[in-house]
Amino acid sequence: xxxxxxxxxxxxxxxxxxxxxxxxxxxxxxxxxxxxxxxxxxxxxxxxxxxxxxxxxxxxxxxxxxxxxxxxxxxxxxxxxxxxxxxxxxxxxxxxxxxxxxxxxxxxxxxxxxxxxxxxxxxxxxxxxxxxxxxxxxxxxxxxxxxxxxxxxxxxxxxxxxxxxxxxxxxxxxxxxxxxxxxxxxxxxxxxxxxxxxxxxxxxxxxxxxxxxxxxxxxxxxxxxxxxxxxxxxxxxxxxxxxxxxxxxxxxxxxxxxxxxxxxxxxxxxxxxxxxxxxxxxxxxxxxxxxxxxxxxxxxxxxxxxxxxxxxxxxxxxxxxxxxxxxxxxxxxxxxxxxxxxxxxxxxxxxxxxxxxxxxxxxxxxxxxxxx
Length: 372
Ligand code: HEM
Prior knowledge:
One of its GO terms (cellular component) is mitochondrial inner membrane. By secondary structure, the chain is mainly alpha-helical. Helix content is 53%, strand content 9%.
């Protein structure tokens, strides 16, 4: 698996590498700057209202949709849909609002051509990445494979879109070349599904959210702080459905792991899917229980006392730089959905998943939204 052709293409286009592709001191300097912009508590305080605005707009859009297309008595209508396309738009709209300080209008019934093209580019880029990672690049070039051309032009479009916005003077963040919205819609779908098929859990989370929202006086950050089950829901979702399925490291010196000698430079991967479902690590691992994360670190969980159980965003200095954006975006979305809708599922059978670049449902689950 190689990222080299992508890195070379970016160099040709003078797009720079970004933290994702850099290493060593070069990486550290950029990363420290980015941490200030999107990871530190001051930055989080600044961007939460932006995410909250998008989450509330998403729910208004859903309210209108349920009212217009749903069944049942007016004011209490239900609509069963595969919400993935809407959630994907939400993830893009929310990330762009934070990164560029600009809304791109994806909830509109007729988004601008520019926004549509941006969505197509992101979709195209995501769809073409997995095969390109595993097929020999020279062969693809030799065959004149359209896959690579499509991939490269999708990235070009994403960069142009970002650069235009940055040029317009919005200085939220220098373009991070993020793996950003990847998977953004996906794990939200998994979360809605688990809440839908676990009505008691859903009710418990909603109860906490109602109380915290009522007490927060419209301050979204305060509301999240007082509703820890929301964060637990995210962790629980990513435990069972880790969108990035592995975390990788290359030890800088020889180490011994579980009595295996690992030479320096060997790629070592933690496989998050089996980890999250292991009875050696989590008590009753298949139970969706957001409350398990609120308990003291070791209570209700098995194994030694390392705390390295929630690894979906990686760990340490190289952990996901978009983590605070993704966590808060998701919590705010769930908060507003739970305040406005009851969720249920037409089928509570386990979702079959497949792993391409990220973990995806074989068939996205359908969710019934009923207005409260
Ligand atoms: C559910 C959402 C997301 C998940 C599960 C996720 C997961 C991850 C993981 C596992 C890593 C590797 C961490 C490590 O090796 O320790 C990573 C890195 C990264 N992520 Fe995310 N990510 C998400 C959303 C985002 C968002 C929204 C952005 C940007 C806005 C982003 C930008 C990045 C970047 C730039 C890196 C590379 C950081 C570096 O190497 O310094 N991610 N992500």
